[in-house]
Every structure is written in C-alpha cells, then in structure tokens.
Specification:
30% of the residues lie in helices and 19% in strands. It is α+β, with helices and mostly antiparallel strands. The strands form three sheets. It has a two-stranded antiparallel ribbon with strand order 1-2. Strands 3-4 form a two-stranded antiparallel ribbon.
C-alpha cells in the first residue's frame, strides 16, 4: 500500500506543471481567414446553404446574376437547388433588389403579379448581403437588404 501511495505521489509530482487554473480570457472575434470566391445561397434539403463560386469577389449585381442562373451541374449533383422562378428578372440596387417577371409579350395587359417564397427571398437576401459584406469588409449579419416591399432583412432572418 505504501508503494502505491509513493507511486501516486511521484506521478502527481511529475505531471504537475506549476501553472494554476485561470478564468476564460476573452480575445475578441475568432479568426476569419481569407475567403476566396463569391458565396451564393442555394437550397439543399429545404434549407439555405452557402456555395462558394471561384469567381470573385463580385459586386452584388454580378452575384445575383450567377444566383439567378441557378446551380451548376456539379452543384445539382450534390443536391443544391433554387427556389427562384425561371422567368424571374432581378436587379440588385444598392443594398436591395427589384423583381420583375420576364414573360413573353402579353396582349392587352401586364404579366401577372407574383410573390417569392421565403426560401427564394432568403436566397436573394443572403447572396446580396454576402457580396455587400465582402465588398465593404463587414460581417454578413451586419448587412440589411431592402426587399421589394420596402422592408429590410438580414441573412440571419432566413436561417
């Protein structure tokens, strides 16, 4: 028993470093690293997911053009999809966007009005916010995007 106690004491002595415990030390934001490419937001399994394209960084209008074009063949193979209507025209304007439906000429009237689904709106808001944040050196959650009804949204509102 004495040998066991002596061995335990020797083990404790050998493993002690002499530095006492301390409280958590706050050091600010975690490192963010250099982000290459342009984040576009597509839908995968019913949720918004960021996909980085090698182009970029791009202006919000250029990112929206890529988004409206839809996922690439490789992205579709990985189950990425879009909820944006195929006949949608989007114009990025400053920190917001305007929508129009591109339809063949309709005799005697305008194309029917439409509303985007929540996921489709999120795709646009998050893509514009990410491009704007990269351009201004901001965090994406600090960017507010003006949607067509005049309200402002953040990407976090759709996550």
């Amino acid at each position: 028993m004495r040998a066991f106690a002596a061995g335990a004491a020797l083990l404790a002595l050998c493993t002690a470093c002499g530095v006492g415990p301390s409280d958590v030390i706050r050091a600010g934001e975690p490192a963010r690293g250099f982000v290459q490419g342009t984040p576009l937001y597509f839908v995968r399994h019913g949720r918004l997911v960021s996909v980085s394209r090698p182009e970029g960084p791009l202006a919000a209008s250029e990112a929206v053009e890529l988004l409206v074009a839809g996922p690439t063949a490789k992205e579709r193979e990985r189950s990425f999809d879009t909820r944006l209507p195929k006949d949608l025209t989007v114009q990025a304007i400053g920190d917001g966007f305007a929508l129009a439906r591109s339809a063949p000429a309709v005799t005697g009237g305008l194309p029917p009005a439409f509303r985007l689904t929540r996921l489709a709106t999120g795709q646009l808001v998050c893509t514009i916010a990410a491009a704007t944040a990269a351009e201004r050196g901001m965090d994406v959650d600090d960017v507010r995007v003006t949607v067509p009804d005049g309200n402002q949204s953040r990407c976090a509102d759709f996550m």
